[in-house]
Amino acid sequence: MTALFDIAREYRDAAAKLADLDLPEDVIADTLEGLAGDLEAKAVNTAFVVRNIEATATAIKEAEAQMAARRKALENRATRIRDYLLANMMVAGISKVESPYFNLAVRDNPPAVEVYEPGLIPAEYMTQPTTPPAVPNKAAIKDAIKAGQDVPGCKLVCGARLEIK
Asked: What's the rounded Cα separation, in Å, for the pair 60 and 48?
């Protein structure tokens, strides 16, 4: 099977060779049309592969989202049941349960600070968050360059993309 890049190279080479020959335009057009047919068929088949891969990637992304939602629901359910068990053990005055599978024990957490009035805290106990580094505002830079201004260190570049509809 001939690769797409081989067909494209053959087309380009044939077009260059035919341009150098003194042939009627209809002969050149027919020859290039035959090569273009192969190129177009291979391009269509390659686009089918692209679409298939994109569809698979989208399906994986959706499955990831569903799995993440399911994981979160299970984690929340486990937390609620754990809190339920703790509350009932405390109400009953039971601090320890032993079983062949695992042991349950009510334990005190280490002390934690609860801030109930942040405005009263002295400055020495406050930390200042670090500011994020500056990043270029590409939209403003693009507008400035389009308006004819020179922005040092920046230029507009135009790339190409393949659109498959």
From this structure: 18
Largest CA-CA distance found in the chain, in angstroms, rounded? 103
Helix (H) or strand (E) holding 7: helix 4-20
The two three-digit tokens of residue 109, written as one number: 């957490």
For the segment 7-44, what is each residue's pLDDT rounded down to a tens digit? 677 767 776 676 667 666 776 666 667 666 667 777 77
CB within 8 A of 158, min separation 6: which ones? none
Phi, psi of 97 (to 5 degrees): -135, 130
Q: Is the overall model pTM greater than 0.85, yes or no?
A: no
Collapsing DSSP to helix, strand or coil, 97 comes out as strand
- Residue 45 near residue 70, CB atoms below 8 Å: no
Q: Whats the size of the chain, residue-wise? A: 165
